[in-house]
Amino acid sequence: MELLLFLLCLFLSFTPAENEAVCSRPQLGANVEIHGLQRIYSPGAELRLSCEEGYTPVFGPHTIVCGASGAWTATKLICTLKRCPYPNQLLNGEMLYDDTTYRSVINYTCHEGYILTGSSSAVCQANATWSSDKPECRPVTCGLAPIPEFGGIIYDRIVRGNTTEYGTTVTYKCLPPYASFGNAEAKCTASGTWTKTPTCQVVTCPPPKNIERGYMSNNDQRNYDYMETIKYGCTGDYELEGSQEVFCQKDGTWSARPSCMAPCRVDIQRGRILYKGEKIWIKNFEPNKVLHKEIVSVYCMNEDRNCGYAIPTQCIDGRLQLPECFKEPSDIAYKFNSGSLPSEIEQC
After folding, report:
1. Which positions fall inside the Sushi domain (predicted)?
2. DSSP string spanning 235-266?
3. Are 308 and 299 in contact (CB under 8 A)?
């Protein structure tokens, strides 16, 4: 009975006078928090406002007062989502996220050949920090590349210790007379293993053959080792065309041999030619010989303009083709009126 009377008195003490205005619990903007659970407030009562977890206050004021009319004073308080800092780029990986606001999630993945070390995701927390540090994408590792018998390897980067990283490549070299069969390169793969290693096998070539009108630096009648070389030359005025040096190839044959190309004769009896920048009467051109690929010019007449011009032609393996415009002068014109020849008159 005493407890019932106490509660009744307590209720009456909080019941406003019949004519006294009171404020009810205010309705505020989204994500704004009101401290306390009270539902009725007397005039003059102050109410402190704040933002829900993960939100930050903008503008203000942060306190409202219950007025005598039963209305609360105005506030422009707005609560906006907190934002975590934008993450730095993940080297050798990808980051997937829509935003960096409170409760946003970043998912991390690594490129092929790399392993994620650390958390695969992070959440933006109420204190505007990420729940975990950015992870690392570390490369898959392989052991040292296998070395074939009678061969060696060259790494494309400096290797320390007994491990290599994903993407490392090696080039294989076999020691002569051994040649490499298979892919000359190998790579540390995403599975942590090396691609297939080539083999080193003995390769020899039969004695090389001489070339027509030429000679060799070595006439030994024996088998030659892989990559062993022979040099060729030409006799007399013959010119070498092609590589002077040939080598024993991986398939047991020699690389392409050169050829000895013949010189040419300027096949005219009367007239003047232009050779190596000098105008020469054909009778004085001794010996009458133009080497392979050399150029000599003969003179033609422009009848309409009455002037002469030089036309070049090239010696190709003993053949020197004269241009169609060339007309050899008569014996009389050549001997007694040489000043009228195309080579002697005004040039076009």
Report:
1. 21-81, 82-139, 140-202, 203-262
2. -TT-EEES-SEEEB-TTSSBPPP-EEEPPB--
3. yes
Q: Across all residues in the chain, what is the average pLDDT?
A: 91
Closest CA to 231 of 262, 253, 257, 250: 257
Residue 2 placed within a domain: no
The dihedrals phi and psi of 205, each to the nearest 5 degrees, come to: -120, 150
What is the Cα–Cα distance from 172 to 143, expressed in whole angstroms? 16
Pair (281, 248) in one structural domain: no
- The token duo for 109 is 């993945």
Residue type, 46: E
Q: Which sign, positive or negative, has the C-alpha torsion 32, 35, 41, 44? A: negative
Is residue 265 predicted with pLDDT exceeding 90? yes
CATH at 236 = 2.10.70.10
For residue 136, give the H/E element and its range. strand 136-139
Residue 172 has what pLDDT? Answer: 95
pLDDT at 18 over 70: no
CA dihedral of residues 262, 266, 269, 272 (deg, nearest 10): -160
For 39, other C-beta atoms within 10 Å of its C-beta total: 9
Q: Rounded to whole angstroms, what are the CA distances from 198 to 94, 151, 162, 170, 194?
A: 36, 9, 21, 11, 12
Question: Does pLDDT of 6 surpass 70?
Answer: no
| 162 and 174 share one domain | yes
Cβ-contact 64, 72 below 8 angstroms: yes
Residue among 345, 338, 273, 279 at smallest CA distance from 308: 345
Does the residue 313 lie in any domain?
yes
The pLDDT, as a whole number, for residue 131 is 97
Structure token digits, residue 115: 């392993």
Report the candidate in 175, 176, 196, 193 with the shortest Cα–Cα distance to residue 184. 196
Question: Which residue bears the tokens 């390169």?
Answer: 185
Q: What is the rounded distance in angstroms from the CA atom of residue 157 to the CA atom of residue 138? A: 17
Per-residue pLDDT for 13 more than 70? no
